[in-house]
Amino acid sequence: MADGKMGEAVAEQATGGRGAFDPDRVQMIDIDTLVLDPANVRTHPQRNIDAIVGSLQAFGQQKPVVVDADNVVRAGNGLVRAARLLGWSQVAAYTTGLGGSEAIAYAIADNRTAELSEWDDDGLAAQVEALLADGVQVGSLGWTEDELTDLMADDYPTPDAEPVEVAADAESARGKCPCAAMGLCVPTQPSQIGSEQG
User: Fold this and answer.
1) Distance CA 75, CA 54 (A)
2) Which residue segments constitute the domains of the chain, with CATH numbers given?
3) Partners of 65 in the beta sheet?
């Protein structure tokens, strides 16, 4: 398709149809007028809400929630709950042209398509390390401190130790086994190893 016709097709898709995005439909809406989706099948445990609260405190609202013509929240129920906990009076919302079963289907698809993505653990660890170096508080990212520690440990694993040959007597073991020098190495006779197997 020629560049001109492709551009026309994109423009037509963006401006036509009830499901097409219309920037004029984004506005600030009083949070008390919003209705959490009664058909929402994506639950929000407390940890999830806490993470959204942390994100809103750190970065503010960077994308609108999606509501239908009746102000039922079709995407962003967790954000609305978190914003209410923070005492917000308004949130940015996009009013979709979808309704009924189409709105329900969109809500499911919105959650499921995000769920199907995967993390690049190595890339994530590198970005977290860079954020820490810049002095950024990473508590608002949604991971616990222990999870981030494990992530960084996985990205920089401890090299596998070379196998240590333990000699039959403690005197010859010294200098070969790291614990031998401290007198903590208990040598094992080859005959004992064989007798303990099976």
Assistant:
1) 19
2) 3-115 (3.90.1530.10), 121-155 (no CATH), 162-191 (no CATH)
3) 93
Burial class (CB in 10 A: 0-12, 13-18, 19+), 24: exposed
Displacement of CA 48 from its chain's centroid (Å): 10
* 67 burial via Cβ count (<10 Å: 0-12, 13-18, 19+): buried
Q: What is the pTM of this model?
A: 0.67
Angle made by CA atoms 82, 51, 111, in degrees to the nearest 5? 80
Long-range CB contacts (within 8 A, 24+) of 181-185: none
- Residue 2 or residue 60, greater confidence: 60
| Cβ 68 vs Cβ 99: under 8 Å | yes
CA atoms within 13 A on the CB side of 147: 8
Taking all residues of the chain, what is their mean pLDDT, rounded to a whole number? 78
What are 79-117's pLDDT values in tens digits? 999 999 999 999 999 999 999 999 999 999 999 999 999
Over 70: is that where the pLDDT of 188 sits? no
